[in-house]
Amino acid sequence: MLAGYFKKGWQRNLAVLWFGCFITGFGNSMTMPFLPLFIDTLGHFTSWQLNILSGLAFSITFLAKAIVSPLWGRLADRKGRKLMCLRASGVMTITITLIAMTTNVWVLIVLRAIQGSFSGYINNAQAIIAAEAPSDKKGQAMGTLATGQVTGTLLGPLIGGFLAGRFGYRASFFIAGALMFVVFWTTLFFVHEQFKPIAAAAMRPIKAVFSTISAPRVLIGVFLTTLVVQASATSIQPIVSLFVRQLLGGHGDVAMISGIVSAAPGMATLIAASSMGRVIDHVGAQKILVLGLIAAVLVLVPMVFLQNVKEFIFLRFLFGLSDAAVIPAYQTLMTVNSPKDAFGRIFSYSQSFQAMGSVIGPMLGSFIASLAGYRSVFLLTLVLEVICLAYVVFAGKHPKKIKIEN
């Protein structure tokens, strides 16, 4: 896929950053689907306690990320986005390795909070490519970069499931930490960013930046979509292995099948995202975003009523096809509506909304699953997608703020 990108300039950066995003997605996804099962080995918990602790362990990383990301975004606009990629990959190496050695659930939660506070590899990689890719290649470039994280997210649960079943849950964390160490060094030596440092006094305030954006409602719609897509993806993460165990009736390899369920959307997105990026360059990102959200709504309706694992895997695959349209579409809209001198901050705000989705999704998913059963989580996701679709359609028709004259 990336053979044509091993050239000088933005193509080479795209290839190296694709690898970094791949490993980042891989490292997260190879451990996330089995985190509730790992937590269950760290103590004796009731079903309610396990649901809440799992939701907290998922959410704390993203809560910290949501709070801290704008500060890192400002630093990225001043010092460069490559430095932020190095910071994120370096800290992730340390925290994931330490999680592999912990025997206490609260230590695990603290380490995940630290990891979230220093995260940001993928959004800074996106900012680098967004700033350097030619205008007629932005959709394709962002779509290709998105396949890096998606491919990692796809392969992670499968390999993580194999490792968990054969060598225990800790093996996945050790390997993820080692791979992030490789990402740190490849980014250091092979990514060359064209960036001139900006003094703090010379930076435009973020209010001034937003005042120059021609379609602010479209950008807000992008942020909302980022939040909803992530909330939809993560709402079932704390309960996916528990729901699979229920669907299997206590029989079968829960860890492996949970990995397949988690990987199904990534498989679909991997197949379609790069091609969809080229479609976006010709058709327009706004139209593709709306169509992708409509597809997501249509898939979620039967998901509320699913009865077996095969249906679960198939519907999750279809949901991934909708993401293949939505993700590169909103990334392209964000790129074309953001001033270049504020890419770091705009993309960091996107990361904050994505992180908030990862907070809201698991916590609401865990809470609602505990009160009304696992299928109710899909109904929650359906409602979020409908709200997002309604606003995106409105923002597309009325992109500018309405000025009220006296």
Automatic annotation (TrEMBL):
Domain Major facilitator superfamily (MFS) profile, residue spans: 13-400
Lipid bilayer topology: Multi-pass membrane protein
Organism: Agrilactobacillus yilanensis
SUPFAM superfamilies named among the record's database cross-references: MFS general substrate transporter (SSF103473)
InterPro entries named among the record's database cross-references: MFS, MFS_dom, MFS_trans_sf, Tet-R_TetA/multi-R_MdtG-like
Gene3D superfamilies: MFS general substrate transporter like domains
Predominant subcellular localization, coarse grouping: membrane
Location in the cell: Cell membrane
Coiled-coil portions: none
Transmembrane intervals: 15-39, 51-72, 84-109, 171-191, 212-234, 254-276, 288-306, 312-333, 377-396
Official protein name in the record: MFS transporter
UniProt xrefs under Pfam families: MFS_1
Keywords of this entry: Cell membrane, Membrane, Transmembrane, Transmembrane helix, Transport
UniProt keyword Metal-binding, yes or no: no
Cytoplasm as UniProt keyword: no
